[in-house]
Amino acid sequence: MEVKTETDRSRDVSQPLDKLGSDETLKANSDYLRGTIKQSLADDITAAVAANDAKLMKFFGIYQQDDRDIRDERRRQKLEAAFSFMVRVRLPGGVCSPGQWLKLDELGRAYCGDTLRLTTRQTFQLHRVMKHDLRTVIQGLHDVQLDTKAACGDDTRGVMCTVNPDLSKLHAEVSALATQASDHAVHRTGAYSEIWYGAERQNKDGPEEPFYGRTYMPRKFKIGFAIPPSNDIDVYSQDLGFIAIARRGKLKGFNVAIGGGLGRTDQAPKTYPRLASMIGYIDADKLFPTIDAVMSVQRDYGDRVDRLHARFKYTIDEKGLDWIKAEIERRLGFALEPAQPCTFTSNGDPLGWIKGEDGREHCALFIENGRVINTPDHPMMDGLRAIAQVHKGTFRITPNQSLIISDVGPEDRPAIEALMKEYGLDEFETRSALRLNAMACVALPTCGLAMAESERYLPDLITKIETLLDTHGLKDEPITLRMTGCPNGCARPYIAEIGLTGRAPGKYNLYLGGGFHGERLNKMYLENVGERAILEALDKTLGDYARDRKPGEHFGDFAIRAGYVTEVKEGRFFND
Amino acid sequence: MTKLEFPGSALTTDQWAQVNQLATSLSQEQAIWISGYFAGLSHQARTLASASDIAELSPPFQNRPAAAPATRLLTVLFGSETGNSKALAKSLVEKAKAKGIEARLADMADYKTRGLKDEQDLLVITSTHGEGDAPQTAVGFFEFLESRKAPKLPQLRYAVLALGDSTYERYCEAGKRIDRRFEELGAQRLADRIDCDVDYEDAADAWIAAVVANLAPSTQTRVSVAPTTAAVQSAAPATTFDKKHPFQAGVIDNIVLTGRGSTKETRHIELSLADSGLTYQPGDALGIVPSNDPALVAAMLEKLSLSADTPVTLKQGTTSLGEAFANTLEITAVTPRFLDHWADITGASELQTLRASDQREARAAFQHNHHILDVVSRFPASGIDAAQFVAGLRPLQPRLYSIASSLAAAPDEAHLTVSPVRYTLHDLPRTGVASGYLASRTEADATVPVYIQSNDHFHLPDDDVPILMIGAGTGVAPYRAFMQEREARGASGRSWLFFGERNFRSDFLYQVEWQELLKNGALSRLDLAFSRDAAPKTYVQDRLRRQGRDVYAWLEEGAYLYVCGDSAHMAPDVHTALTDIVAEHGGLDRDEAGAYLSALQRDRRYRLDVY
Ligand code: SRM
Ligand SMILES: Cc1cc2nc3c(=O)[nH]c(=O)nc-3n(C[C@H](O)[C@H](O)[C@H](O)COP(=O)(O)OP(=O)(O)OC[C@H]3O[C@@H](n4cnc5c(N)ncnc54)[C@H](O)[C@@H]3O)c2cc1C
Ligand SMILES: Cc1cc2nc3c(=O)[nH]c(=O)nc-3n(C[C@H](O)[C@H](O)[C@H](O)COP(=O)(O)O)c2cc1C
Ligand code: SF4
User: Fold this and answer.
1) Model's pTM, two decimal places?
2) How many angstroms away from the CA of A83 is the closest CA of chain B?
3) What is the pLDDT of residues B412-433, one digit of tens each?
C-alpha cells in the first residue's frame, strides 16, 4: 500500500489534461472517438481527413497514408498527396474461415489495390482504400463477422496466438481464449457502428467506456498467447504475454510475462526494445481478471506526457518490476504463483504439411513478407481464392506473415495439393531456410514512417545473401533475418539473429546476436551502412560461423560467443 | 490603277485579261468600290465570276443614285467576342468621320433596342461564335431582333459585315441572320453582306472603304480617299504587341497538371512578359502565334514533292515554301476555299460534288475528317507548283488561351492551362496546331510569340460583388486568375467555384491552390463534379442543380455569373440547369426563367467565355 503513495504520479492520468500530452486532450474531447470523422468523410475537396480525425480513426483500425513514391511528383503538379487509407482487420489468433477469405479477396480486388497483406500480428491489412470507399469496405467485413476495432490506437491491439496446429486440442482451447480476450479488452464506444455502419446513436445507461474512460490507454497495448514449444508470436515482445501451461495436452494455466515492446527511436537512448519479464503463473480461470489488472495498472500509471515514453515497458522500468507486480496482485486480490517451467525451441513457422494429433492435416505456405498478390508468373492471389472456394477447414495467419491451410481432411488433401501445384504455391520446398524464416515490414511506399525500403527490398537482398550461404554451405541452416524500414521494429527485428532497420534510403543498422526462439535481444553491429558493407559483414560472420560453430549452435548464439556483439541482458542496456 | 500581278490559278487567262482591262479603266474610287463588291461577292459565289456575269448580277447598291445627304446619322453596330469586329467597327467609324460622315459606334452588348426604329444608316459588323451563334455579348440583341417585339424598319438602310471561320459548319451564321432579319423587317440593303474568313483584314477593309465612299457626301469623297486607304494598310505602332507583332515570351515552366493514370493531359504553362510592357486583366486571353509541326511540314513537302527552299510570294512578301508552311500558312484544317481550289486543280469528281449547295453536311463532314495532307494524298495533283498550292491556303491563325494568372500575384507573367488536342485520323496521330506546339515544342527557355487579347466581357466586377464561377476542364483557367486577383486585393465579395473534370485523383486541376483559398477564406465555396469517379456521372450542371436554392439566392443578391470552357456541351447544359433553377426557386415558368437569364446577360451579369 504505502509503496503506492511514494510513487511519482506527475505524468499519468491522475493529472489535469493541460499537464498531459495533446493527444490526451484530443481523446478526452473526442466524445468517445467520434470527433468530426463524419464531416471529414463527407468532405469531397480532399481525399484526406482532418488531422485529429486521422488520429482518432486509428482506434478503428484505419490509418491515413499517402503514396510516397509519387508524393513529390504530385506536389509539383499542384495536386495534394495521393492519400488513401490502410485498414487493419481484427483477427484474434489469425484464424479466418474460407468465407471470410473470399470476402477479403473480393474487397482487396475491388478497393485495395488488388492485394492483401498478412501482418506480423496475424491479420490482414488492406491498403490504398479511398476515403469514399471506407464504409463499403468496413461494412463488407461486417458481412462476414469481421471488424477493425482497436486494430490500432491507444488500446489493446490484435491479440496473437501460436498457430502450432499439431497440438490441435490445446490450440483450439487457447485460440478460443485469445478471441475472448480480444472481445473482452476491445473498446466499447458506439462511435464505431454509428460512423461505419450508419447506426443510430444509443444513449447507453452507464459509462460508454467502462474500462478505458475518456482517455483510453496512454499508448498501444499488445497481448499474445504462446503455446510452447513454439514461440512464433514472440511472446517476449508483448506488453502482456501468456505462455500456455498444459498437463497431458489439456490447458491448465498461463505463465504471465509483462513489459515487452520493441519500438525505439534512433538517437533517443531513453527509448529501447525490451523483452517481457516473467512475473508468475495463473490458472486459466484467472485469465480475464489478470488482463484487467495488468492493463489497468498501465492505464493508471503509464506516461501520458511523452508518447515516446508511454509504453508499458517504460512504466515498468520506471516504477520497478516488483512495485508493478505488487500493484497487479493488489488489484487481483491474490498473489501470483511462481512461473512454471516451459521451453521454446523456435519462433519460426513449420512449413509444408503436418498431421495434427487428431489426424487432420495442415499446410503452411510461404508467402514472402505476407504480400498476397498476383504477379504474371505467380498468380498467388488467384490460387488462394481457388483454394478458399474448396477448402472446408480454416486459414491461420502465422506471426511470420505466412499462411496455414488448416484442418484439411485427408480425403481433401489431394485437391488442395493440386491447386497449390497449379498456382505455384508449393514453392517453399525450393526456398532457402533463411528466406523461409525472414520477415520484412511494409515500409515504402505506404508507411508514413519508413526511412528506407523493406518489403520491396528484402527479397533481392536475400538472394544476394543466399549466394554467401551457398559458398559457406549454410543453405539449409535456419537463421532468422528480419528487416524494417525504420527503428519502430514492426517485423520484430531486435529479436532476430540478423536484424536490419532502416535509417535512410539504402542505409540500415545491422544487428546481430538475437535469440533463435526470441529469448534474447540482438545488438547493433554496424550503424547506418549500405548494402555493400552489410554483405561484407555477413560474408565474414557467416563464414566464421560455418567454420567454427559448435554442433547445434545457432548463429545468434555464435555471434555473441565470437564476440561480434556483447549480449544484451536487459532492454535498458540495448543502447549501451 | 497600276499593274497587277497574275494571281496564278485563281483566274483563267481570259478572265484575267478582262479584269486587267477593267482595272486600268477604273478611277481610284471605282476601283475601291469594285474591290469591295468582289470581296462581298467572293463568299457567296466562291469562284470569281467573269465580267459578263458581273453585268447580269444586281449592283450591290440598290439606291445608288440617291447619294446620302450629310445630315443622315450613321451608326456602326458591332457584336464581338474576341475583339475583331470591335476593332473593325472602330476603324469604320474613324474612316466615316474622316469622310465627313456623322458616325457613332455602338456595341450590341449595351445597345438600346428601343432606338432601332430611329436609326437611319446602320452598318453591322458581327462575328459568329459557338456553333453558329451570336457573340455572347450580343445574344440579347439577337433575341430582340429575331423576336416579335422587333419593329418594322422601313426607314433603315443597312449593310452587314460578317466575321467567321470557314472551317466551321455555320459559317458567318450570325451575320447572315442579321442580314436576313433586317430584310424581313423592311430595311433596305446599302450593300451586299460580306462574309469574311479569319484572314478578313483586306477583304473587310476594301468593303468598308467602298461602303464609306458610297455614304460619303459626294462633295468630300474625292479628297480623302487616298489617305484613308493608306491609313487602312498602316499597321499598329510596333511598340504595342499584337497579332501581327507578337511579343517573344520566354517559357518559365511547362508541366503536366494531370496526375498519373489520368485519361487526360492538361498542362500548366508559365510565360514571362518581362520587358514587354504588356499588361492584362483577369479574364483576358493570351493570343499564341503558333508554328506548325516540323514533321507535318516535312510530310507535306514530301507529298507534294516540292523542296523546302522553293521561293513563294505571299501577302507578307517572298519567302521559302518550308518557311511558309512552318510559320505563315494553315496546313492542317481544310477550308471550303481549299476544297474548291483543289477541286479545280485535280478535277476530282468527289470534290466537285461536294461543291453543290445541297452538300453542306457532306462537305462539313469531309472537312472534319480530312486534313489538307489527307486531301493531297487522296487526290494527288502531279507536278503542282508551290505558288499554285499556297494560293489555296489561308494564313496561320493565332489561338487564344485564357490567362490563368493575375499580375497581382505573378507580376510580369502569364500562366496558361492548356489541354493539347490529340486524336487519330486515318490511322495517323494528329495534334492541334497551337496546343501541340505549346505542349511539345516549348521546353523551358524557348520563347513563344504572344499578344494580349483583352476580353472586356469577362472581367471581374467590383470587389464587393459576389461571383459564381462555373467551369469544366481548362475552363477553370480564368478563375485561377480571378481568385489570385481577389485574394491579392482582399476583395470582400464572396466567390463560389463550380469545377468539373473526369477523375478526382488525377484531374483536380490546381487542387492544392483551391484548398488553400478555401482555408484562407478568399474562396467561399467550392463544388466539384467528377464525371468518371462514380455512376451516375455527375457534371457541373448537376452540382449546380443540387445547390439550386443557394445559387438562386446568390443571383438575387446580385452575384455575377461566369461560365467558361466547353461550348458544345457544358455551356448549354449549364444554361438549362440555370433555367430550371431560376424557374424552381424563383417560382417562374420556363419562358420567364429564360427571360430572367437573358436579362442577366444584357446586364452583363451572366458572362460566358466558351470555346
Ligand atoms: C503491418 C505491420 C508490419 C508488417 O509488415 O506486418 C506494421 C505496420 C505499421 N506499424 Fe507496426 N506494424 C506491425 C507490427 C508491429 C510490431 C510487431 C508486433 O507487434 O509483434 C511492432 C513492435 C512491437 C511493439 O509494438 O513494440 C510494431 C511497432 C510499431 C511502432 C513502434 C511502437 C513503439 O512503441 O515505439 C509504430 C509507430 C508508433 O506506434 O508510433 C508502428 C506503426 C506502424 C504503422 C501503422 C505506421 C504508422 O503508424 O503510420 C505501419 C503501417 C505500415 C503500412 O503501410 O502497412 N508499429 N508494429 C504489423 C501489423 C501488426 C498488426 O497486425 O497489428
Ligand atoms: C476565348 C478563348 C479562350 C480559350 N482558352 C483556352 C484555354 O484556357 N485552354 C485551352 O486548352 N484552350 C483554350 N481555348 C481553345 C484554344 O484557343 C484552341 O482552340 C485549342 O487549343 C485548339 O487549338 P489548336 O491549334 O491546338 O488545334 P487546331 O489545330 O485548331 O485543331 C482543332 C480542331 O481540330 C479538329 N478536331 C479536334 N478533335 C478532332 C477529332 N477527334 N477528329 C477530327 N477533328 C478533330 C476540330 O476541327 C478542332 O476545331 C480557348 C479558346 C478561346 C476562343
Ligand atoms: C469558340 C469559337 C467558336 C466559333 N464558331 C464559329 C462559327 O460557328 N461559325 C463561324 O463562322 N465562325 C466561328 N468562329 C470564328 C469567329 O467568328 C472569328 O474568330 C471572328 O473573327 C471573331 O470575331 P470577334 O473577335 O469580333 O468575336 C468561332 C470562334 C470561336 C473562338
Ligand atoms: S517498421 Fe517502420 S517502416 Fe516498417 S512498417 Fe513499421 S513503422 Fe513502417
Assistant:
1) 0.84
2) 9
3) 999 999 999 999 999 999 999 9
